[in-house]
Write a structure and sequence with these properties.
The protein is of the alpha+beta class. It contains four helices and three strands. Strand 2 and strand 3 form a beta hairpin.
Length: 70
């Protein structure tokens, strides 16, 4: 998982592991959304190092499972 304060540049380092998406977590480790390679690559290269992944994360409730539902 990637912290919501991680940037697009951080994502690029993880993306080398051939995964297309990663969960984004808050400061307490709770999943707040999912960010994909497409989301990050849509940013202009100079913005990748300054854009927090928490602002890009998809927050669709259908993509997330609460601990009480798992």
């Amino acid at each position: 998982a990637l912290d919501r304060a991680s940037t697009g540049a951080d994502f690029d380092r993880f993306a080398r592991h051939l995964f297309g998406a990663f969960p984004v977590v808050d400061g307490e480790g709770r999943t707040i959304g999912i960010v994909t390679q497409r989301d990050v690559r849509a940013l202009p290269a100079p913005q990748r190092g300054a854009t927090a992944l928490g602002t890009l994360a998809h927050r669709d409730p259908e993509l997330l499972i609460e601990p009480s539902r798992s």
